[in-house]
Amino acid sequence: MEFITDREALRQHYRAPGDGAVKKELRLLDRHATSFLARSPFVLIGSSDGKGNADVTPKGDRPGFVAVLDDATIAIPDRPGNNRLDTLENVVANPAVGLLFLIPGMNETLRINGDARITADIGLREQLAAEGKPPVTVMVVAIKAVYMHCAKAFMRSELWLPGTWPDRTSLPTLGQILHDQLALADNAEALDRSLDESYRKSMW
């Protein structure tokens, strides 16, 4: 198998992008992007460390949990998680991030690329508190590019159509997966109960 190793060789396999696909990229948030952020409860964050090791992590909360500080800056609170800090440690080493915002049921997405920094500023943390609990830190993103992404991936995958969803009971629970992968002594049912209890106590 041969692999494509340079941009020119890659471009030979594709048509040039349409004028609209190029011109739609903005440098600042407009009213449509701001409105999308106010309605989005979920974002995927792409990052990489100083050695090029990549990671994508989800962040979610109630719609509008990502704050617009101004038309060139947004803030993403870090709610309780597993404390691996994959994304945060990446950002400390390499500030470049790619963000993909979703609204349930909407096939179009909002993409934002920029440079991120991590702050524990108490004023910003209190501003982004949920259920009376401020985030431990906040990721502040200076925007370099913002644009809407077309619906094809979601249309092809039929992601939002319940009729295409698999029967959840046909899939293993996280407790079952962890039991098998880590050879844990606790049975899957006990692990699932422990996970459910953790979710109830540490959502915010």
From TrEMBL:
Stretches assigned to the Pyridoxamine 5'-phosphate oxidase N-terminal domain: 31-150
PANTHER family per the UniProt record, alphabetical: FAD-BINDING, PUTATIVE (AFU_ORTHOLOGUE AFUA_6G07600)-RELATED (PTHR42815:SF2)
Record SUPFAM superfamilies: FMN-binding split barrel (SSF50475)
Short name of any one Pfam family annotated for the protein: PNPOx_N
InterPro entries tied to this protein: Pyridox_Oxase_FMN-dep, Pyridox_Oxase_N, Split_barrel_FMN-bd
Record's protein name: Pyridoxamine 5'-phosphate oxidase N-terminal domain-containing protein
